[in-house]
Amino acid sequence: MTDRQTGLIVALDTRDPTQAERWAQAVTPHASVIKLGLEFAYAAGFDAVARLAAGRALFLDLKLHDIPNTVGAAVGSLTSLKPAMLTIHASGGSAMVAAASAARNDAFDTATRPLLLAVTVLTSLDDAALAETGVAGGARAQVLRLAELALRNGADGLVCSAHELEALRREFGESPVLVTPGIRPAGAAAGDQKRVMTPGEARRAGADWIVVGRPITGADDPAAAAAAIAAELTS
Ligand SMILES: O=C(O)c1cc(=O)[nH]c(=O)n1[C@@H]1O[C@H](COP(=O)(O)O)[C@@H](O)[C@H]1O
Question: Which GO molecular function entries does the Swiss-Prot or TrEMBL record give (predicted)?
């Protein structure tokens, strides 16, 4: 059991800026960060991302994964959005993570520098699905391997499932920012998520942040759903 403060990030996964704004307002008292990702950015565009992010802390989840030069340049292209957090895929390799980190350090002022988070193994993959990609040995071993690579090359934190949190804390201590999607309140549908845990379990296992989308945005009352999850994080 830790005395860690675990924050709630709400994933506003929609193509519709009006819907995203409605959800953002509903969850504002309970979530300190909103996450906008590929669905929203591709459909609504980056001007809409900027409008929604104004006055809010933004987790810009673009999961960059390309050659180092391209990823570095892409990170440098995101300054006007003033994100608080950015994602890249750790599986892009050491040089790619290092390029992202260098570009983040060069392009952003110290005061507005976003956290660079490296996605390890997607929470939608179980060991069998991961093995299909050629990675044997299971998700936990691969998360630890990619975590070492990412942290050594300048990432501030990791996106992982809550199942790997205790192993990551044992290996890398308290300083990496650990962000866990694949969170489901007890009884909620897992959907396409495979490595899931409840908000309370993730907090106790060492999460700094949990990411929750559909259990909030798909609820009849998103504000109440967010409030219940926030309460579980502090109980
Ligand atoms: O980087 C992420 O945020 C992410 C990584 C990961 O391994 N798994 C994962 O689900 N996510 C994101 O977290 C959110 C989870 O949404 P729900 O499954 O609806 O709660 C989605 O926006 C995903 O894109």
Answer: orotidine-5'-phosphate decarboxylase activity
Cα dihedral 199, 48, 40, 159 sign: negative
- Residues recorded for the chain: 235
pLDDT interval class at 1 (50, 70, 90): very low
Would the pTM of this model clear 0.90, i.e. be above it?
Answer: yes
Counting from 1 in the atom list of ligand 1, the atom nearest the Cα of 184 is 20
Which sequence positions are flagged as catalytic? 63
Q: Which contacts (CB < 8 Å, 24+ apart) does range 228-232 have?
A: 228/185, 229/8, 229/30, 229/183, 229/185, 229/199, 230/8, 230/30, 230/31, 232/185, 232/198, 232/199, 232/200, 232/203
pLDDT tens, residue by residue, 125-135: 999 999 999 99
Residue 123 assigned to a binding site:
yes
Euclidean distance between CA atoms 168 and 151, whole angstroms: 11
pLDDT mean over 31-51: 98
Ligand 1 contact, 229 CB (< 6 A): no
Best probe residue, ligand 1, of 60, 85, 115, 123 (max atoms within 8 Å of C-beta): 123
- Tell the CATH superfamily of the 7-234 domain: Aldolase class I (3.20.20.70)
| ipTM tops the 0.95 cut | yes
Q: How far apart are the first and last CA of the chain?
A: 12
